[in-house]
Write a structure and sequence with these properties.
five-stranded mixed β-sheet; Nucleotidyltransferase, domain 5; alpha/beta; globular
């Protein structure tokens, strides 16, 4: 039997979090449970035993709830409470408008995860009965039990980075969809042209040639000579971020233009569509580059550029994509809290002597996991510390990881180290990152 009585770090952090939340939802405050919708808002006022003190339904938009908050405060005062705390689900962007109204009225606001409301709905009477009135009461109950979180308050700079990051994800998704669509169409009507480059959609010369020809072999042959076609491609090439034409690719495209036609009945229509989609690809690629430039400028404004550049294998754009999803890192208690926010923390499955398979939680922000996963690919290829770690994880004799599992582990490590670098203002150090001591890392920096 263990005599250990000292609290763990997790216990201390949990206790501190509960203390902070209880200061926001004190026992002498009533709780306003708010179920938000576009034109119907249900407001309930409850005590800490979930007894409903007052209830009203408002047929208005979320931006017109100022009067409802004043009514709820008056109802709480009549019931003997000294104040109120507002609780709601983070529904779309409506809750942000309500948050502004609450701040103007001097009312603290907390948010309840919709998943917890769904679980509480089933636990209420063991059915899946759903109504706005019940949901408002359940939101208030969860707030009384401190199953809430304090919503992030974004400054203008961080808000801009958040929206730029969302815009970048949209453009990357559309760009990838356009690339795949062009490939699918060409596989049907002109498959030979896809073999003209090992990675055609990563080859600027191939893309410029397809843009000039409109994905149509007849337009390729419409140029009198290969040299004339080359000159036209050279003029288009700067739009794809390149300067010099790779002539072997053009020679293969010129030869492929005489290949037998596929799907004669649909060839002309499919080629026309492929040319249009290629134009979409050009647009989304340019939009993505534009938004990445703006994100880089925001990182410079935050003063993080030099710290990120000290991190080999992590680009400023990659770090900006991560920070767009995390927000200000100083709001997290620890690096572990940040990893948990990304859903990359281990999820144990153990009871007594049974130990099941441990996986990542996959909770938190999915787009943050995506940004970290993309950064892990680049870090593994360009950072010696992460490359060595990846090799060790995938080749060790005991419990070797798959390639994907190793990248997830490296992504979590990358996130922890990025947190430390940016919150402490300390450049990344390979010795410390590889498991060395702080003294070793300091000595190495001084020697350098």
């Amino acid at each position: 039997m263990s005599n250990r009585s000292r609290l763990s770090r997790g216990d201390n952090r949990r206790n501190a979090r509960i203390k902070r939340l209880r200061e926001i939802v004190p026992h002498d405050n009533a709780v306003i449970g708010l179920d938000l919708a576009s034109a119907k808002q249900v407001v309930v006022v409850t005590d800490h035993d979930s007894r409903v003190l007052a209830r009203r339904t408002y047929r208005c938009s979320p931006g017109e709830l100022g009067q409802a908050l004043q009514w709820a405060r008056a109802a709480a005062t009549t019931a003997g409470f000294t104040g109120v705390t507002l609780a709601c689900e983070p529904t779309g962007h409506r809750w942000r408008v309500v948050g502004e109204l609450a701040a103007e009225a001097g009312i603290a606001m907390v948010c309840v995860q919709p998943m917890l409301v769904a679980r509480a709905r089933e636990a209420e009477d063991f059915t899946r009965d759903k109504s706005d009135d019940k949901d408002a009461m359940l939101i208030a109950r969860l707030a009384c039990h401190l199953h809430v979180y304090v919503p992030e308050v974004l400054s203008p700079v961080w808000a801009r980075l958040r929206h730029l990051g969302a815009r970048r994800v949209e453009q990357i998704t559309r760009r990838s969809a356009a690339r795949q669509q062009v490939r699918d169409l060409l596989e049907c009507v002109w498959p030979q042209v896809l073999d003209c480059a090992s990675k055609p959609f990563d080859a600027a010369t191939w893309l410029a040639a397809m843009r000039v020809a409109g994905c149509d072999p007849e337009q390729v042959r419409g140029h009198a000579t290969l040299e004339a076609f080359t000159a036209a491609v050279a003029a288009e090439l700067p739009a794809w971020g390149a300067r010099r034409v790779y002539r072997p690719i053009l020679a293969k495209i010129w030869a492929a233009a005489t290949a037998p036609a596929g799907l004669p009945g649909q060839r002309a229509a499919a080629i026309e569509r492929a040319g249009s989609v290629l134009g979409d690809l050009v647009y989304h690629a340019a939009a993505c580059t534009q938004v990445e430039t703006k994100m880089t400028a925001v990182i410079e404004e935050l003063g993080y550029t030099a710290l990120i550049e000290s991190f080999p294998g992590i680009s400023v754009v990659g770090a900006a994509a991560i920070l767009a999803e995390t927000g200000d890192l100083t709001r997290f208690d620890s690096a572990r809290a940040l990893v948990k926010h990304a859903g990359l923390c281990p999820r144990e499955n153990a009871s007594g002597t049974y130990a099941g398979k441990t996986t990542i939680s996959r909770r938190g922000r999915p787009k943050l996991r995506l940004a970290v996963y993309r950064a892990a690919f680049a870090a593994t290829a360009n950072n010696e510390v992460y490359a060595a770690r990846y090799t060790h994880l995938t080749t060790r004799k005991v419990n070797p990881l798959t390639n994907n599992q190793a990248r997830v582990a490296i992504g979590a490590a990358l996130l922890r180290q990025l947190f430390t670098v940016l919150t402490t203002g300390t450049p990344w150090n390979p010795t410390i990152a590889a498991g060395g001591t702080t003294k070793q890392g300091t000595a190495q920096q001084e020697a350098a």
